C-alpha cells in the first residue's frame, strides 16, 4: 500500500473508532440529563431516578474518557496526514473545528467533572445545570464536526484563489443544507445508540427481576428516545440519499450499483453480485418501482448510472476514474437500511406493547431478550453508514475540488504504517477494555459498590449517597 | 497590531496555558511512583488532579484547532513535519487519559499497577516530546519547496532538542510537585515528600533550562534579533526558577507554584519571541529561502476576523468557568481509608 492508501485507512480507522465511543457519549449525555431532570422535579420518586442517573452516569463516565482522547487524534491528524488538504481548506475548515473546541469540548470536559465529583459540593440545581451543559456541549460538538464534514461533501461559500479555498460567506457554510441533514442523521443515530444501550441493559435486569422499580422506568425513557431517534435517522437519511442523487450522483448510483442509466420507473436492487472490473452486475434481484420512490418520492423517474456519470465527470474534472468502490458502498447501504428498519420496528413494537397494557413491556420476555441482543446493532448501522457517506465520495476529498491523492502529507509510507500499527494496537485494546468494563458494570447493576474511587470522588453509592445528599441540602 | 500578529500571540497564549495547566498534571503523574508508597496515597495523588486533567488537556486540542484555522500552512507543516513525534504523543495521551477512568474499575493490584505505569509513561513521553517539538520549531525542519516537509525520526533528536525535551520534562515535574503542595493536606507524609521532590527536581530543572538558553544562544543564534526588552523572558525564566528554592525554604507554597508557573510562561514565550523576531515561524534546514513566514502561513483576513470574534467571546468564558471549577474543588486532599466510603 502506498502512503495515500495508508493515510486513508488511518483516517477511516480513527474516525470509526472515535465515533464508536462518541455516538454513545452524545446520546447518553442527553438521556442522563433527562433522567436527572425527572429526579429533580419528581420529589416523590427521587430516590428511584437518583439511582438510575448514578448507574447510567457511571457507565457514561467509563466511555467518556475514551471519546475525549480519541478526539485528540482527530484534531491532530489533519495536519499530520493531510497537510496539503489543510493548506487548501484551512481558511474554511479550521473555523468549525476551532468552534467545536471552544464551544463544546471545554464545556463537556469541565462540567462532567463538576457533575460527577461535585455530588456533595454543588447545590442540586447546579448539578442539574452541569449535566445539561455536558449534554448541550455534546450536541454542539456533533453539529460543528458534521458541518465541517458536510462542507467536504457539498462545498459552499468559497472561492478558489491561488490553490487555496477562500471563505466568502460564513453564513452559507453554517446554513449549508447538507450540514443540517447530516447533523439530524448523526444526532438521531447517536440517540438510537444510547437508547438501545439503555433498553438492553434495563431488559437484562428486568429479565432477572432485579430492581424493577428502576429498570422498568429506564426502559420506558429508552423506548421514547429510541422511537424519536429512529424516526429522525430514517427521515433525515432518506432525505440525505435524495440530496446525494442531486449533488453527488455518483454516490447515489454506487449505493444502487446502477451501472447504466436506469429505466423509469426505476427498480430497486435487493441483492446484486457486483463485478467492478467488468462494470456490470452478474446477478441482480430487483423490486420494481421502489427505486423511483427512493430517489424522487414518486412512482416514476430515472437516475443516471455510474458509466455515463464517469464520462461526465471526466469532462468536468479531467482524465481519471471517478467511480467509487461500488461493492463496499452498495452492501454497506443495504446493511445500514436493514438494521435501521429493524430498530425502528423494535422501538414502535415496544411502544405498542406499552400502550396495549401498562406493564406489557415488562412482562413480554421474548421482547426483553431481543432488546439485550440488539445492543450492538446501532453501532453496525453507524459503521456502515459512514462507509456509504465517505467511500461514496471517493476519489474526492472535497467534492469536485480536491482529490484524496492531492491532499496527503509528504510522509513516507513506513512512517505512516508504523503509526498505524501503534494506533490500531491501542484502539483495539481500548475498545476491548471499554466493552469489558461496560458489560461488567452494567451486569452488576445498581447494587455494585465500586471497590475504590478517587479521593476527590466519593464512591457513587447508588442506593444512598445521592439521595441523602439531596435530603441534606433541601 | 494587525490580526496576523494578534493570532500569532493568541496561539502562543494557548500553548503557554496548555503547558502551564497540563504541565502540573503531567508532573503529578510522573511523581506518583516515587512519592506514593501505599494504595490510599496513590489514589490521593490522582485525586489532586482528578477533576482538572480533562479540562487541562482540552487546551492542546484548542491550540491545534486554533492553529489550523488561523495558520493552516504552519499547522500542516509542523504536524506533518514531525509526524513520528506526534504519533508518540497521541499514543501516550490515549493510554494516559483512559488510565484515570479505568484504574479504579477493577479491584486488583496488578490491574492498578498496570494503569499507574501507563499514567507514568503517558506523562513522561509527552512532557519530553513537547520540549523537543518546541526546540525543533526554533531549529527548523527540512522544509522543501511549497512548504512540504519531510522529517525523519532520527533527525528530530539533536543535542539542542534533547536538552529542550529534558527542560520541559524536569520543569513539568517541578511544577507538579509545587501543585501538590497546594493540594495535599499539610499534616501528611505525602506533603513532606512532595516538598523534598520539589527541591530536588527544581535544581535539575534549573540546570536543564540554563543549558537550553546557553545552547540556544551559542549554537542556534536564538537571540540574535532579540532587542533589549525580550531578554526579559529568558532571564525571567531563570530568576523565577531560582526564586522557587527561596520560596520553598520559607514555606511559601503559593509563591513557589506561581514561580514555576511563571517559568513555564517565560520559557514558552521565549520560544515564540524567537520565532517572531526572526520573522520565520518554521525555518528550513534545506534552504533558508524555503522557511515559512508568519504572513504566508496565515489564513485570509475574513477568517481571522471571524476567529477574533469567536475567540473574544469564548476564551474569557472558558477561563472563567475553569477557574470556578478549581474553586469548587479547592479543598486539600488527604490519603486515608475513610475517604473510600464517604468521601468529603
Strand runs of chain B, count = 2
C-alpha-based Rg of chain B, rounded: 20 Å
Strand order of the largest sheet of chain B: 1-2
| SSE string of chain B, helices as H and strands as E | HHHHHHHHHHEEHHH
Percent range of helical residues of chain B: over 70%
- Chain-averaged pLDDT of chain B: 84
Taken in chain order, the helices and strands of chain A follow as HHHHEEHHHHEEHHHHHHEEHHH
Helix content of chain A: over 70%
- Strand content of chain A is 5-15%
Placed side by side, the strands forming the largest sheet of chain A appear as: 1-2
Gap between N and C termini of chain A, in Å? Answer: 64 Å
Quaternary structure classification: heterodimer
Number of helical segments with 4 or more residues of chain B? 13
Low-confidence stretches of chain B: 337-344
**Biggest chain contact:** A-B, 82 and 84 residues
Main beta sheet of chain B: strand number and arrangement? 2 strands, antiparallel
Radius of gyration of chain A (Å): 24 Å
Overall mean pLDDT of chain A stands at 84
* Residue share in β-strands of chain B: under 5%
Explain what this protein looks like in three dimensions:
The complex is a heterodimer of chains A (474) and B (344). Chain A contains 17 helices and six strands. Chain A is mainly alpha-helical and 474 residues long. In chain A, the strands form three sheets. Chain A has a two-stranded antiparallel sheet. Chain A has a two-stranded antiparallel sheet with strand order 3-4. Chain A has a two-stranded antiparallel sheet with strand order 5-6. Mean pLDDT of chain A is 84; it is low at 451-474. Chain B is mostly helical. Helices cover 75% and strands 1% of the residues of chain B. Chain B has 13 helices and two strands. Chain B is globular. At the A-B interface, helix 2, helix 3 and helix 16 of A face helix 2, helix 3, helix 4, helix 5 and helix 12 of B.
Amino acid at each position: 500500500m502506498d502512503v495515500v492508501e495508508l493515510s486513508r485507512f488511518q483516517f477511516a480507522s480513527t474516525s470509526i473508532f472515535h465515533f464508536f465511543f462518541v455516538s454513545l457519549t452524545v446520546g447518553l449525555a442527553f438521556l442522563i440529563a433527562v433522567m436527572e431532570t425527572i429526579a429533580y422535579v419528581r420529589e416523590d420518586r427521587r430516590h428511584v431516578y437518583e439511582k438510575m442517573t448514578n448507574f447510567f452516569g457511571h457507565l457514561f463516565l467509563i466511555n467518556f474518557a475514551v471519546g475525549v482522547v480519541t478526539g485528540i487524534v482527530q484534531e491532530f491528524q489533519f495536519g499530520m496526514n493531510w497537510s496539503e488538504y489543510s493548506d487548501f481548506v484551512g481558511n474554511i475548515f479550521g473555523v468549525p473545528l476551532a468552534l467545536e473546541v471552544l464551544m463544546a469540548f471545554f464545556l463537556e470536559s469541565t462540567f462532567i467533572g463538576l457533575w460527577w465529583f461535585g455530588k456533595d459540593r454543588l447545590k442540586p440545581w447546579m448539578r442539574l445545570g452541569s449535566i445539561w451543559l455536558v449534554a448541550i456541549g455534546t450536541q454542539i460538538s456533533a453539529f460543528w464536526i458534521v458541518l465541517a464534514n458536510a462542507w467536504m461533501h457539498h462545498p459552499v461559500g468559497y472561492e478558489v484563489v491561488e490553490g487555496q479555498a477562500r471563505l466568502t460567506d460564513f453564513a452559507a457554510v453554517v446554513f449549508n443544507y447538507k450540514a443540517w441533514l447530516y447533523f439530524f442523521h448523526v444526532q438521531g443515530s447517536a440517540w438510537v445508540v444510547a437508547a438501545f444501550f439503555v433498553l438492553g441493559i434495563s431488559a437484562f435486569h428486568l429479565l432477572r427481576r432485579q430492581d424493577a422499580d428502576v429498570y422498568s422506568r429506564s426502559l420506558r425513557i429508552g423506548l421514547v428516545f429510541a422511537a424519536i431517534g429512529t424516526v429522525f435517522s430514517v427521515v433525515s437519511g432518506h432525505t440525505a440519499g435524495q440530496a446525494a442523487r442531486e449533488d453527488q450522483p455518483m454516490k447515489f448510483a454506487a449505493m444502487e450499483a446502477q451501472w447504466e442509466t436506469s429505466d423509469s420507473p426505476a427498480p430497486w436492487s435487493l441483492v446484486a453480485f457486483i463485478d467492478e472490473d467488468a462494470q456490470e452486475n452478474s446477478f441482480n434481484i430487483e423490486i420494481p418501482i421502489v427505486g423511483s420512490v427512493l430517489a424522487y418520492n414518486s412512482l416514476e423517474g430515472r437516475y443516471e448510472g455510474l458509466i455515463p456519470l464517469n464520462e461526465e465527470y471526466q469532462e468536468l474534472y479531467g482524465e481519471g476514474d471517478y467511480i467509487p468502490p461500488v461493492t463496499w458502498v452498495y452492501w454497506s447501504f443495504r446493511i445500514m437500511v436493514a438494521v435501521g428498519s429493524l430498530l425502528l420496528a423494535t422501538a414502535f413494537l415496544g411502544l405498542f406493547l406499552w400502550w396495549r397494557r401498562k406493564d406489557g413491556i415488562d412482562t413480554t420476555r421474548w421482547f426483553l431478550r431481543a432488546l439485550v441482543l440488539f445492543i450492538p446493532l446501532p453501532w453496525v448501522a453507524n459503521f456502515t453508514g459512514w462507509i456509504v457517506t465517505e467511500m461514496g465520495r471517493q476519489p474526492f476529498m472535497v467534492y469536485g475540488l480536491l482529490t484524496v491523492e492531492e491532499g496527503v502529507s509528504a510522509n513516507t509510507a513506513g512512517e505512516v504504517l508504523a503509526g498505524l500499527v501503534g494506533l490500531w494496537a491501542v484502539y483495539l485494546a481500548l475498545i476491548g477494555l471499554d466493552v469489558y468494563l461496560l458489560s461488567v458494570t452494567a451486569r452488576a447493576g445498581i447494587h455494585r459498590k465500586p471497590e475504590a474511587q478517587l479521593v476527590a470522588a466519593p464512591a457513587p453509592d447508588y442506593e444512598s449517597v445521592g439521595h441523602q445528599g439531596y435530603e441534606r441540602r433541601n | 497590531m494587525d490580526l496576523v500578529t494578534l493570532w500569532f500571540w493568541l496561539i502562543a497564549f494557548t500553548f503557554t496555558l496548555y503547558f502551564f495547566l497540563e504541565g502540573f498534571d503531567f508532573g503529578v503523574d510522573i511523581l506518583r511512583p516515587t512519592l506514593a508508597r501505599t494504595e490510599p496515597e496513590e489514589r490521593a495523588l490522582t485525586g489532586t488532579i482528578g477533576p482538572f486533567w480533562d479540562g487541562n488537556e482540552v487546551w492542546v486540542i484548542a491550540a491545534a484547532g486554533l492553529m489550523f484555522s488561523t495558520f493552516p500552512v504552519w499547522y500542516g507543516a509542523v504536524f506533518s513535519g514531525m509526524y513520528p513525534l506526534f504519533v508518540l504523543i497521541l499514543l501516550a495521551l490515549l493510554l494516559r487519559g483512559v488510565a484515570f477512568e479505568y484504574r479504579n474499575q477493577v479491584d486488583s493490584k496488578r490491574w492498578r499497577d498496570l494503569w499507574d505505569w501507563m499514567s507514568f509513561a503517558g506523562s513522561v513521553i509527552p512532557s519530553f516530546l513537547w520540549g523537543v517539538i518546541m526546540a525543533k520549531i526554533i531549529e527548523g525542519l527540512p522544509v522543501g519547496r511549497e512548504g512540504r516537509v519531510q522529517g525523519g525520526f532520527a533527525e528530530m533528536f539533536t543535542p539542542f532538542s534533547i536538552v529542550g525535551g529534558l527542560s520541559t520534562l524536569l520543569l513539568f515535574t517541578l511544577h507538579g510537585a509545587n501543585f501538590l503542595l497546594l493540594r495535599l493536606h499539610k499534616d501528611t507524609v505525602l506533603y513532606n515528600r512532595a516538598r523534598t521532590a520539589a527541591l530536588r527536581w527544581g535544581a535539575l530543572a534549573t540546570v536543564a533550562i540554563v543549558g537550553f538558553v546557553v545552547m540556544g544562544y551559542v549554537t542556534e543564534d536564538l537571540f540574535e534579533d532579540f532587542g533589549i526588552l525580550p531578554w526579559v523572558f529568558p532571564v525571567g525564566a531563570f530568576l523565577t526558577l531560582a526564586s522557587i528554592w527561596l520560596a520553598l525554604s520559607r514555606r511559601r507554597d503559593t509563591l513557589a507554584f506561581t514561580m514555576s508557573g511563571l517559568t513555564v510562561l517565560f520559557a514558552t514565550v521565549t520560544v515564540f519571541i524567537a520565532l517572531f523576531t526572526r520573522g520565520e515561524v518554521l525555518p528550513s534546514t534545506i534552504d533558508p529561502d524555503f522557511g515559512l513566514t508568519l504572513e504566508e502561513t496565515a489564513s485570509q483576513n475574513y477568517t481571522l476576523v471571524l476567529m477574533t470574534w469567536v475567540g473574544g467571546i469564548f476564551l474569557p468564558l472558558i477561563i472563567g468557568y475553569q477557574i470556578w471549577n478549581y474553586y469548587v474543588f479547592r479543598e486539600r486532599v488527604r490519603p486515608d481509608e475513610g475517604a473510600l466510603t464517604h468521601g468529603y
